[in-house]
Structure formats: structure tokens, C-alpha cells
């Protein structure tokens, strides 16, 4: 045991590591429990066009434990991915999203809204993922052309031929694709051309310092120019200031998402915004 290990002994295991493993196990148990209670919920963040009109939303998962502070998806999504819990969670997100689209499509004032959901790599690669999407679309009777799947660069670059084949099957159902966190990975122009994506989502790390960082500004201009030449729609995420919005507008960006237009919020707070702005 570590306790008896003398100097110069290589320890493969130390109390810090044990503590980390314990914390992870506790979190995993809590996440399993959260799935069976109502601690998980979907929040909706508006996406707007150049006139600031709400045209859709991104669904973002929230874990709000009844007896503790909210736990960030940047913490529990990776854990869910490692443990496989993302499979049932991802299916739940898909169902909730399709239910919401069904509600929107039943009302003339919200019929045109597009809803984006995030899809993890292991979820996308499940053998029955396409069937699940197909069945959920059918179950809720939605027009799937208003359902968008956000895939990350790393997802699409790994096993690219299989990914492209699967994307085509999903596109046949009417679903569209946004390439999330664009710019943080290694996608090249030639890869982008091969992928049946509809939209590129500029990562918020480039948007943040747009007004002060010449390199970020150059990257954003390049992404906008390149996407235009490829006929791809571009959305910028993490837009917080009017200054960032103006820069993006002046360089041709078509869609926007960020605190400037609205934070992720429960669905009850969402329709009011649509009616308010639209
Ligand atoms: P993402 O898909 O890139 O989502 C955008 C993140 O930026 C969200 O963080 C959102 O709340 C945040 N954000 C939006 N506007 C602003 C802004 O103006 N300023 C700043 N500072 N942040 C902004 P969130 O909700 O914490 O989610 C983090 C990540 O967790 C997501 O990044 C996504 O990768 C993952 N995630 C969230 N929900 C799901 C889900 O249902 N399934 C899967 N697989 N992943 C999810
Ligand atoms: Mg996203
Ligand atoms: Mg993103
Ligand atoms: Mg991001």
C-alpha cells in the first residue's frame, strides 16, 4: 500500500487519485439517480437572424439537483460519455426536443422555429441511432426539416466515411446539420466540402475577443468568407456584446446565438421572447 512505500518507490496509486475516483463514482451514482428523478431538464437558448428575430433555439441539457448547486454540462457530459449514460440521456434529449418541436409546429406563431440538439460521438455511432431518430420523428409527428443536429469537428473527422454515410441517411429524413465549435479542431476546406453539413457554428472562443484580438478577427473573417464560397450558412455562438454583433454583421454572418439575445432558459420563458421579438 502507498502508506508503506519508501522513498524512491514508484507509486501507481496515491490518495489524490483515490479521492478523484471516489468523487467520480459519487457523481456517476448521482447522475444515474438524476435520470430517474426530474433533475435533468432541457433549456432553450434563442438563435436569431440579422434583424435579431428569433428563428430557433439550441436545446442545452441542465442538471439541477434538488439538494445541491447546478452541475455544468461541461462536467457531467464527459462523465456521461465515459460511462455510456449518454446513450439513454441522449435519447431523452431527442424525445424532449421532438416533443417541443411538435408543440411549436402546432402553433402558427412558432411553426417555423428550428431546434438544434447536441449529439455526442458515441451516441451518433450507436448502430440504431438513425432508426431512433426516424422513430422519434414519427412518434411526435414533426416536420423533421426543423430539427438540426449539432456535431463537433472531432466527431466528423473520426471514421469520416461512416459518418458521411450516416449523415446522408439522416438528411433523407429531413434533418439538417450544424458543425459545432468550428475552428477548435483541424477541419480543412477539403473535409468540409465532403461533409453534407448545412451550417458552420463559429466557436465562442473566437467570438470572445473579436474586437481586440487581430488573430481571432482574421479567423472569423476567413471562416465567413470560406463558408460563403461553399454555400454554407454560418452561426456565431457566444455573442455577448453589440460590438461583436456589429463585427459579425459587417462580415456577413447570418445567424447569432449568445447572451446578447438570450441565455439558455426553461421553455416557459421561451415563447414570450419569440412573440416579443418576432
Ligand atoms: P455547446 O454545444 O458549444 O453549447 C454552447 C455553450 O455556450 C452552452 O454551454 C451555452 O450555455 C454557452 N453559451 C451560450 N451563449 C453564451 C454566451 O454568450 N457567453 C458564454 N460565455 N457562453 C454562452 P453549456 O450549456 O454549459 O453547455 C456546454 C456544452 O455541453 C455544450 O457546448 C455541449 O457540448 C454540451 N451539451 C449541452 N447539452 C448537451 C446535450 O443535450 N447533449 C450533448 N451530447 N452535449 C450537450
Ligand atoms: Mg452546441
Ligand atoms: Mg458550440
Ligand atoms: Mg462550444
UniProtKB/TrEMBL annotation:
Signal peptide from the UniProt entry: none
Domain EAL: 24-278
Protein name as catalogued: cyclic-guanylate-specific phosphodiesterase
Location of this fragment in the whole protein: 631 to 908 of 908
Amino acid at each position: 500500500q502507498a502508506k508503506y512505500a519508501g522513498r524512491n518507490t514508484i507509486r501507481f496509486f496515491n490518495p489524490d487519485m483515490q479521492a478523484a475516483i471516489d468523487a467520480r463514482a459519487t457523481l456517476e451514482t448521482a447522475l444515474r439517480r438524476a435520470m430517474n428523478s426530474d433533475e435533468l431538464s432541457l433549456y432553450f437558448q434563442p438563435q436569431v437572424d440579422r434583424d435579431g428575430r428569433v428563428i430557433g433555439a439550441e436545446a442545452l441539457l441542465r442538471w439541477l439537483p434538488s439538494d445541491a448547486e447546478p452541475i455544468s454540462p461541461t462536467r457531467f457530459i464527459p462523465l456521461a460519455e465515459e460511462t455510456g449514460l449518454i446513450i439513454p440521456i441522449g435519447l431523452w434529449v431527442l424525445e424532449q426536443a421532438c416533443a417541443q418541436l411538435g408543440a411549436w409546429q402546432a402553433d402558427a406563431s412558432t411553426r417555423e422555429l428550428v431546434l438544434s440538439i447536441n449529439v455526442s460521438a458515441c451516441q451518433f455511432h450507436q448502430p440504431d441511432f438513425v432508426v431512433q431518430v426516424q422513430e422519434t420523428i414519427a412518434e411526435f409527428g414533426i416536420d423533421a426539416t426543423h430539427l438540426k443536429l449539432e456535431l463537433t469537428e472531432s466527431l466528423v473527422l473520426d471514421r469520416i466515411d461512416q459518418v458521411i454515410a450516416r449523415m446522408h441517411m439522416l438528411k433523407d429524413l429531413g434533418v439538417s446539420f450544424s458543425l459545432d465549435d468550428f475552428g477548435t479542431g483541424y477541419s480543412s476546406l477539403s473535409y468540409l466540402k465532403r461533409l453534407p453539413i448545412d451550417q458552420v457554428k463559429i466557436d465562442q472562443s473566437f467570438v470572445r475577443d473579436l474586437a481586440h484580438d487581430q488573430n481571432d478577427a482574421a479567423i472569423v473573417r476567413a471562416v465567413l468568407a470560406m463558408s460563403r464560397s461553399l454555400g454554407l450558412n454560418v452561426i456565431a455562438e457566444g455573442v455577448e456584446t453589440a460590438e461583436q454583433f456589429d463585427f459579425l454583421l459587417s462580415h456577413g454572418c447570418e445567424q447569432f446565438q449568445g447572451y446578447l439575445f438570450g441565455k439558455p432558459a426553461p421553455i416557459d420563458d421561451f415563447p414570450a421572447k419569440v412573440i416579443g421579438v418576432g
